[in-house]
Design goal:
The chain is mostly beta strands. It has one helix spanning about 1-10; strands at about 25-30, 35-40, 45-50, 80-90, 90-100, 105-110, 120-125, 130-135. It has 1 helix and 8 strands.
Length: about 140
């Protein structure tokens, strides 16, 4: 009986564990922008490395839509848009994402597809409303 139980447990499908370091890389989001996810201590951030070839706003490369007028002249390249994420059970959660196209900040979670570690999903949400973006790992 014990043998059958162990055999049953061994045959159950398991999801591969996504480690915190799996997130640290360059990710190209829908539209063409590239975000670099990096870690500082135990906290994760993501900064804009490359903008889309055809951006939908901020054509001059500045943070024009920021609600803080003193920040509207800062460059988008190099700016953190993912902030204060922590690793929790395979996902990055508890942080925010800044949308430079609207000047708004949203709660966010990021997770890697367990079946394809070169794809991650970025979900921005406000209350029960959300939008999920797919991002692909950038290979040199």
């Amino acid at each position: 009986m014990r043998f059958l139980f162990c055999l049953l447990i061994a045959c159950l499908p398991t999801q591969p564990i996504i480690t915190p370091d799996a997130y640290i890389d360059m990710w190209q989001i829908e539209g063409g922008s590239i975000i670099e996810i990096y870690k500082n201590g135990n906290t994760f951030f993501g900064k804009i490395k490359t903008r889309a070839k055809n951006p939908i706003s901020n054509f001059n490369g500045l943070d024009n839509k920021n609600p803080n007028p003193s920040l509207r002249k800062r460059q988008l390249i190099g700016m953190d848009i993912l902030n204060n994420l922590t690793y929790n059970e395979g996902e990055l959660t508890g942080g925010t994402i800044y949308n430079a196209d609207s000047g708004k900040t949203y709660d966010v979670k990021v997770w890697i597809d367990p079946d394809n570690k070169d794809i991650c999903f970025i979900r921005a949400y406000k209350g029960i409303l959300f939008k999920t973006f797919e991002a692909k790992r950038v290979r040199d």
